[in-house]
Design goal:
The N terminus and C terminus are likely disordered. This protein has a seven-stranded antiparallel sheet with strand order 1-5-6-7-8-9-10, with no helix packed on it. Strands 2-3-4 form a three-stranded antiparallel sheet. It is built from two helices and ten strands. The chain has one domain. The protein has 183 residues and is mainly β.
């Protein structure tokens, strides 16, 4: 190996070793079985079940994390009743930098899916260890259909009287992010 090849090889290895961990991270999809069990969850965190019962007006949605059961407030439970043709999607991670975010499972609840997989609807992020709600987001597809705006909504009391299923941000300064397709 000549000096130039060795320098390139060392530079490549250094770039890989020093790259931020988020660059290589991708959530794992958890298929939802007929009995509500999320498959592919590691044994140390599972089993995890999603149980949806009742009608859209008075739903009972329960998540079971190992032996811990979490019942969602009705305003959140209604989000799991989707229009025909839409389905709940589950994904998560336990193999990322745990100092930034605990192991989690996320549920995407599309009310209307647009092209490129973007959707109008909500997503809920739960801690895989405790079952606690970590994040609630509203997704709104941009008019062009080539991007989505995501608003972080309050998780402390999303069903409080001053916030009944409007699930609106508490102020105009609510955190938002935007994803767009590059052409």
């Amino acid at each position: 190996m000549n000096l130039r090849s060795a320098t390139i090889a060392v530079g490549f290895l250094a770039a890989v070793a020093l790259a931020p961990p988020g660059w290589a991270h991708e959530d794992m999809i958890f298929p939802i079985e007929n009995d509500g069990r999320l498959s592919r969850i590691p044994q140390e965190f599972g089993p995890v079940f999603l149980k949806v019962q009742g009608a859209s007006g008075s739903p009972l949605v329960e998540l079971e994390f190992r032996a811990r059961s979490v019942s969602l407030e009705p305003c959140l439970g209604r989000l799991f009743f989707l229009p025909e043709g839409e389905r709940v999607r589950a994904m998560g991670s336990w193999y990322h930098d745990l100092t930034l975010l605990p192991p989690y499972v996320s549920f995407e609840l599309p009310q209307k899916t647009a092209g490129h997989g973007f959707f109008d609807g909500y997503s809920l992020l739960f801690n895989l260890e405790t079952g606690g709600l970590l994040e609630l987001q509203r997704h709104t597809v941009e008019p062009s259909g080539k991007g989505v705006k995501m608003e972080s909504l309050p998780t402390a009391s999303p069903c409080a009287p001053d916030n009944p299923l409007r699930l609106r941000p508490t102020s105009g300064d609510a955190p938002t992010s935007k994803i767009e397709l590059l052409e």
